[in-house]
Design brief:
The structure holds two protein chains of two kinds. Chain A is of the alpha+beta class. Chain A is 31% helix and 37% strand. In chain A, strands 5, 6, 7, 8 and 9 form a five-stranded antiparallel sheet that branches. In chain A, a hairpin with a 5-residue loop joins β2 and β3. Chain A is elongated and about 55 Å long. By secondary structure, chain B is of the alpha/beta class. The chains are: A alpha+beta, B alpha/beta. Chains A and B meet through α1 and α2 of A and loops of B.
């Protein structure tokens, strides 16, 4: 779900606190400012049924800083995640790795004799697939940001 | 003016004329501003009592209750009272002092992150970082506390900010982007309700604390009169309707009346108004009103559908929704249903086992019979609470104040103080057990100092009666609930300057109670109760 909040100190902690207090899980959470610097957008992925989603959005709406809660369904939204992956790369397999990176439209952002860092964006599935393909070479470190998303079409109706 | 003076000026703008408080270093600047103003300050004996007193004040007047305490331990002592207000949706504005803004986060003397600590049980809280924002902050605090689903709002003010100079201008209005409570019920939903009620056979209204908070008793009474629908209520809903009304059934829930619970189980349409279907009320989701279509009217959309599957939800203030319903309601035929209910009511057993000590149920019935209409009764938590709820009759303007949601022992005495200060012309009686009384007995000092003319009825059964009852019912007898050593409560009250008497059996009570009523003084009546006396 996409949650628009006032960009106040402590809002992230409030939302996280709400989830933990009520026993809802946070699969992933990303947050950043929007086109309005006083408003931030949080993208929260949570796993549960309809009842849980209804309760989560109602409890979120009760928070004074929360302006709007939108359910983002896969069909009507664009989902993206970013990942940085540090892969062991000997000179012999650097070219092979670079071919895979290009197929996935990723970028190499750091390189030395022992390893390379690859930046890749895309859907959760695409990133997971790429990581699988990198495993045989030896993955040193990964960071994934978690999903962020926007509804397709024109700006939110208000 | 100084920011501290601005705070007091804001209170005056909000029509606050009384605050309950306990000063400390961090709030001295505010107390200087209080000294110069005509706002009445009631000094309590412990901060938790300031919170409960503000709660009693708010519930008696319908206004926002205000308390002022210092930083660190002052604020943390208040935490229980804030949580209690949150659970019962009582509008409070709590002002806490805080250490100097430049020192926050360095573990200085009497520093505590009160905004972090109370986050989960305040409706909202503010840590003031800019003295100029104080008028806007206070206006927003009162607005948030007193609108939508009411609740406590905390304003934490660092002491250096209190000393800054600001220009005072009280905002005309408040606009909070993320907070726009719905008070008017959707007319389409209201029409659906009217249509459903029209064809119902066994409709039932269940009123909760929301009806009291919305001051919607008149609208409810009119709705009952027009619709011929019987009424049950939750513990917090006691006071929603005159209990002499023909359609009044009774208290439901874990400690309610069996016949009232039976009525709920047999309803085909259940109209839940201003009630949140708490576990105490429904005692088990699966079976509660399982054959009924539930119509849920509440100001908090999060409560609708949280526990019960709702057939028709309506978000709105109960007074507004009831008024709208009253315009169009078509009464169903309920004579047969009412006859059934009256028959079940006959099954009510009057629990007056003979006892050689005082029977608390008899005491409550006597108090109920003797007193007039302008009465505020405060109950503590436990057996005494249920004896009050089950045996005191609501008529006229009678109110009963108790901590239902959090169930905080020690609530009764300070809440009675708040109520009497709010309504000096009303008769205020505080009931408590010896357990709950000892949690706030230090407030006898506040009672004596301010000549607060209340009657305290203390049910002394030498221990924690409700826990004892649970242990007797489910476990091999009582453990850890006995007060083997209790003080002589009569001497204790007299030491504080109150009048006091001990009552050992029922026949003595009537005379002593009348003596207390005529004394025009603060009076404590200690009633010796059998430790094995049960709730029902």
């Amino acid at each position: 779900m996409s949650v628009l909040v006032e960009n106040h100190a402590g809002v992230l902690s409030k939302v996280a606190g709400l989830f933990s207090r009520r026993g809802y899980n946070i699969h992933s959470l990303t947050v950043g400012v929007t086109e309005d610097p006083e408003i931030s957008r949080m993208t929260i992925v949570s796993i549960g049924d309809d009842y849980m989603f209804e309760q989560i959005s109602k409890q979120l709406n009760k928070l004074i800083e929360v302006i709007k809660v939108i359910e983002l369904s896969e069909e009507s939204s664009v989902y993206r995640e970013l990942s940085l992956i540090k892969v062991s790369a000997e000179n012999s397999n650097k070219l092979l790795i670079m071919e895979t990176v290009n197929t996935f439209r990723g970028k190499i952002v750091d390189m030395n004799e022992k390893s390379i860092i690859i930046e890749i964006t895309g859907s959760e599935n695409k990133i997971s697939a790429f990581i699988e393909l990198m495993k045989p070479y030896g993955i040193k470190e990964i960071i994934r940001t978690g999903l962020t998303a926007l509804q397709r079409g024109s700006k939110l109706e208000d | 003016m100084k920011a501290a003076e601005a705070v007091i000026q804001c209170l005056k703008e909000e029509n606050v004329n009384t605050v309950f408080g306990y000063p400390g270093a961090a709030v001295v600047p505010i107390y200087e501003a209080l000294r110069k103003s005509d706002v009445k300050h009631i000094l309590v004996r412990q901060e938790q009592a300031a919170g409960h007193a503000a709660s009693g004040y708010a519930r008696s007047t319908g206004k926002v209750g205000v308390c002022i305490v210092t930083s660190g331990p002052g604020a943390s002592n208040l935490i229980t009272a804030v949580a209690a207000a949150y659970m019962d949706s009582i509008p409070l504005v709590i002002i806490t002092g805080q250490v100097k803004s430049t020192l926050i986060g360095r573990d200085v003397f009497q520093e505590l992150d009160i905004t972090g600590a109370t986050e989960s049980f305040t409706k909202y809280n503010f840590l003031v970082k800019d003295a100029k924002s104080i008028p806007k902050t206070m206006k927003e605090a009162f607005y948030i506390a007193d609108t939508g689903r009411k609740g406590p709002v905390l304003v934490d003010i660092p002491m250096d900010i209190m000393e800054e100079d600001i220009d005072f201008e009280y905002p005309e209005s408040v606009n909070i982007r993320g907070y726009k409570p719905t008070v008017k019920g959707h007319f389409g939903q209201i029409k659906k309700i009217i249509d459903r009620i029209k064809i119902s056979q066994r409709p039932l209204i269940c009123a909760g604390g929301g009806v009291i908070l919305a001051n919607a008793q008149k609208e409810l009474e009119q709705f009952v009169r027009k619709s011929h629908i019987p009424v049950v209520h939750t513990l917090m809903g006691k006071g929603c309707i005159n209990e002499n009304n023909d359609y009044y059934v009774g208290l439901i829930g874990t400690h309610g009346f069996a016949y009232a619970n039976k009525v709920v189980q047999n309803a085909d349409v259940l109209i839940l108004i201003g009630a949140r279907a708490s576990d105490r009320t429904i005692c088990g989701v699966k079976n509660f009103a399982k054959d009924a279509d539930v119509i849920h009217i509440d100001i908090d959309p999060a409560e609708i559908g949280k526990i019960l599957n709702t057939y028709i939800p309506v978000v709105g203030d109960c007074g507004n929704v009831l008024s709208d319903l009253n315009k169009e309601i078509v009464p169903p035929q309920t004579e047969k249903w009412m006859k059934e209910i009256k028959n079940w009511k006959k099954d009510l057993h009057i629990e007056r086992k003979p006892t050689d000590k005082v029977n608390p149920k008899y005491v409550l019935q006597t108090v109920s019979d003797i007193l007039g209409e302008d009465v505020i009764l405060t109950a503590d938590v436990g057996q005494n609470q249920l004896w009050c709820a089950r045996n005191f009759k609501i008529t006229g303007n009678r109110k009963i104040l108790t901590s239902g949601g959090l169930g905080t022992m020690g609530y009764s005495l300070p809440a009675a103080i708040g109520a009497k200060i709010a309504c000096p012309d009303k008769r205020v009686i505080a009931f408590a057990g010896d357990g709950g009384f000892q949690m706030s007995l230090f407030e006898l000092g506040t009672v004596a100092e301010n000549n607060i003319n209340i009657i305290i009825v203390l049910f002394n059964n030498s221990g924690l009666g409700m826990v004892r009852e649970i242990q007797d019912n489910k476990y091999p007898g009582e453990f850890g609930v006995n007060f083997k050593t209790n003080p002589d409560f009569v001497k204790l009250a007299e030491a504080y300057g109150l009048m006091a008497k001990r009552v050992e059996n029922d026949s003595e009570f009537n005379g002593v109670f009348k003596e207390a009523l005529n004394s025009n003084r603060a009076f404590l009546i200690e009633c010796i109760v059998d430790p094995h006396e049960k709730t029902f």
